[in-house]
Specification:
By secondary structure, this protein is an alpha/beta fold. The protein has a single domain, classed as Alpha-Beta Complex (Protein-Tyrosine Phosphatase, Chain A). Helices cover about 35% and strands about 15% of the residues. The protein has 6 helices and 5 strands. A 5-stranded mixed sheet has the order 3-2-4-1-5, with helices on both faces. The longest helix is centred in the middle third of the chain and has 13 residues. The protein starts with a strand and ends in a 6-residue tail after the last strand. The mean pLDDT is about 95.
């Protein structure tokens, strides 16, 4: 099954052992960045140092165009035949936004709301970072549909840390 796995940092090693992902995205604050874990190839591990903020003025390292362009480019190197692991500190905001962005890029325009609804269904705690989604909406030329889709699912259940979530890429499995 072709899927994106979303986890908090505390579940990364277990997810690698269980799912054997070939690609991995780490979204952590620069001062908390990790090395490539055992079981992953360094060239298939994208590490993006950014704070989890929704406004650029309240952080030294907010999500920016470069981060999102790197994420999209990295996602395009993944053929989707094996799992990709995406994680942040808690598995709630940055990693959910990155997964939403990757899924939107793999699917045709017009599927944004369906993808957001699938994320909400599988991850009641998801709260995709709105700044990341807004930047990606512009880069992918989605005309506000990505922003509207994430807005439509709301904040989600408030938790300190998410669980490992499987997000299938297949339209039949959304």
């Amino acid at each position: 099954m072709s899927l994106i796995l979303v986890t908090p940092l505390s579940h990364v090693e277990a997810a690698i052992r269980r799912y054997h992902p070939t690609h991995m995205v780490t979204l952590l604050s620069p001062e908390h960045m990790i090395d490539t874990p055992e079981g992953m190839e360094a060239e298939r591990h994208l590490r993006l140092g950014m704070n989890d903020v929704a406004q650029t003025l309240i952080s030294d390292d907010p999500p920016n165009d470069r981060h999102i362009k790197e994420l999209i480019a990295f996602g395009r190197t993944w053929d989707g035949k094996t799992p990709m692991l995406v994680h942040c500190w808690a598995g709630i905001s940055r990693s959910m936004a990155a997964s939403f962005i990757l899924m939107c890029d793999k699917r045709e325009p017009g599927m944004e709301r369906e993808i957001a609804n699938a994320i909400r269904y599988r991850a009641p705690h998801a709260h995709p970072n709105p700044l990341m989604v807004s930047i990606a909406d512009g880069i992918l030329d989605r005309g506000g549909r990505m922003i509207a889709a994430v807005d439509s699912i709301g904040r989600g259940t408030i938790v300190a840390e998410g669980q490992t979530v499987e997000l299938p890429l297949s339209p039949d499995e959304l």
